Amino acid sequence: MNFENTQNRFRLLSGLSEDECEKWNAVLNESADYVSSIVIKKSLTASDRDRLGTLAGVHAYCKYLIYGIESGSGFRAGELTVYADRETVGNAEALWQNELRLNSDLVSESDFVFKRVRP
Predict the structure, then answer these.
(1) What is the three-state SS of 45-80?
(2) CA count, 13 A, side-chain hemisphere, 84
(3) Which residues pair with 80 in a beta bridge?
């Protein structure tokens, strides 16, 4: 996987400076590991590795959006969780699903959902 592509895509989507992005390196690494775990293509070309790096950057950005939702912006009622910023969650999920479709020849994912984690 091309980790430079991961960093570049995250920086482009987030609008953060290179220095600001450094504090998100753990998330970038987690996303790179996750994307590596869902690869289905056996023999990867350099172009494939570039695309996977970019996909990991999108994954990290989606996590960044979810983590950015302020604590207390939603509530839980039984099995239902309502977020004050449902639009952000929906946009992150839509972005991720679109990127998965664009890279469906390289990766396969099932049963993964972006959700906010309460502290």
Answers:
(1) CHHHHHHHHHHHHHHHHHHHHHHHCCCCCEEEECCE
(2) 8
(3) 77
**58: nearest Cα among 110, 18, 7:** 7
Residues 6+ apart with CB under 8 A from 7: 21, 28, 57
| Average pLDDT, integer, range 74-83 | 54
Distance of alpha carbon 83 from alpha carbon 81, whole angstroms: 7
Q: Is 105 helix (H, G, I), strand (E, B) or coil?
A: coil
In whole angstroms, what is the distance from residue 113 CA to residue 93 CA?
A: 7
CA 41 – CA 25 distance, rounded (Å): 26
pTM of the model: 0.77
Residue of 60, 47, 42, 50 lying closest to 108 (CA atoms): 42
On the question of pLDDT at 37 being above 90, the answer is: yes
**CA–CA distances in Å: residue 2 to residues 53, 70, 71, 79, 90:** 5, 31, 33, 39, 27
